Amino acid sequence: MSDYFVHESAYIDEDVEIGKGTKIWYFSHVQSGARIGECCNLGQNVNVSNNVRIGDYCRIQNNVSIYEGVELEDYVFCGPSMVFTNDLTPRCKYPKGHSGYLKTLVKRGASIGANATIVCGNTIGENALIASGAVVTKDVKPYALMAGVPAKRIGWVCECGEILKNGFVCGECGRTYQYNQKDDELSQIRGEDE
After folding, report:
1. What is the CA radius of gyration of the chain?
2. What's this model's pTM, rounded to 2 decimal places?
3. Per-residue pLDDT for 193 more than 90?
């Protein structure tokens, strides 16, 4: 008996690793070579392509395809019907195959809203928040709040998900951040437990 759950309507190919406590729901497909961590939840109609890596505690909502070349670190949230790509110039007549796919990395704790699109070849930083419907065309800084087409930074978010409105202290959890103007980056200097 396995220590994870797969709905009877889902398909799991050979040579797949699925972590303890993970749940894979209706009509989903996990392809050969995929590695899914512990305590993940894959909603209805999710496709995990060949050789994809998904960390622990990830939430993949309905109708998401995670194509080869995409890697999700721990605690990543993918909203309903958001889109990953893996080829900037696709042609049916001239397929590139997996060696031509551009890599996309979604770092720990990042969240991607419903119907957002992540253009391949980019990295989404730790705890970044991509708004629903945004189109990400370049790397995203840690803690950045991104919205629009193409996506632009419109603010910063706390690790807990709250938008930082009054300086760089979260009004919800009290985490404190420091802004580095030279690098245009935010870093956490005091956590919730301190």
Report:
1. 17
2. 0.95
3. no
